[in-house]
Specification:
Shape: globular
Number of helices: 10
Order of helices and strands: HHHEHEHEEHEHHEEHEHEE
Helix content: 25-40%
Distance between the termini: 26 Å
Largest sheet: 10 strands, mixed
């Protein structure tokens, strides 16, 4: 099934609508650098092994990760399923190869093509559980034997899970009166849409064994994402033929074990090897 024939779920339709708003496109256009210490640590973990080898950057958005990964290898390809974001990325980085493509179907790439496949910024969480398994299977297919998959996912045990409207709508801290005023104005501007989204999407929240679907505060409560735990994610990777080799906490940047206390980590960065 090609990109144009992809059957989108309710979760897809909600999230794709959020990615295409003017505010989201402007935000992704300006993003730069690492999302968090854990992402930097995960890239440092794989850098030497994949240096100068073919890399696939999934969910490239406006191109935040292009300079980060291009420094690892010039053999770089980026994909994203939102055409507007691909256009922004191509404008920002005209010399790199970027395509419109869904992570669940990477059929344009041959088997055993890449040394590293990266799906950053919890992009895999915007897809339902069945689609998530397809993504991991596609990663395993296009990776070379022994190749590495690197992706991040929201932590079911983390502080962001079950975030309420009241918690997410607070005014951000400010260093001075002017900044405080700007933060107040921004919060008031976002409040009506955030409240509307929270009320219409919260009924879609679901809890399962080892993972949950929940409306997320990001994009004014405009997206539905999956939260999961280390054990469940390791199992899903194994089923796809990917052996989890390391997990890094987003906030601490530290490598964590399956039994570690990760209640302070908003999300987790997984490094898994094709077996």
């Amino acid at each position: 099934m090609g990109f144009s024939q992809q059957r989108f779920t309710v979760q897809d339709r909600v999230n794709r609508s959020a990615w295409r708003t003017r505010s989201a496109l402007r935000w992704y256009d300006k993003l730069s650098d690492w999302t968090d210490p854990g992402e930097a640590a995960a890239i440092a973990y794989v850098r030497a092994e994949v240096r100068d080898q073919p890399l696939l950057d999934v969910g490239v958005g406006g191109g935040r990760t292009v300079p980060l990964l291009s420094r690892v290898s010039p053999d770089y390809t980026g994909v994203d399923y939102t055409p507007e974001l691909v256009a922004i990325c191509q404008r920002n980085y005209p010399s790199v190869q970027v395509r419109v493509m869904d992570a669940r179907n990477l059929a344009e790439f041959e088997d055993n093509s890449f040394a590293l496949v990266m799906f950053s910024f919890n992009g895999i969480d915007s897809i339902d559980s069945e689609g998530r398994r397809k993504v991991l299977s596609e990663f395993a297919r296009v990776l070379k034997p022994g190749g590495l998959a690197l992706f991040s996912t929201h932590n079911l045990a983390g502080p962001g899970y079950r975030e309420t409207f009241a918690q997410a709508s607070h005014v951000s801290q400010a260093e001075n009166v002017v900044e405080f005023g700007i933060n107040c104005a921004r919060a008031l501007y976002n409040l009506p849409m955030a409240a509307f989204n929270y009320l219409r999407y919260s009924p879609l929240n679901r809890e399962y064994d080892g993972y949950a679907l929940r409306v997320c505060a990001a994009h004014r409560f405009g997206i539905l994402i999956l939260y999961t735990d280390i054990q469940t994610q390791r199992q899903q990777c194994a089923e796809a033929g990917l052996l989890t080799e390391a997990v890094f906490g987003s906030n601490s940047g530290a490598q964590v074990s399956e039994l570690a206390d990760v209640s302070g980590e908003n999300w987790l960065h997984f490094v898994a090897r094709k077996v």
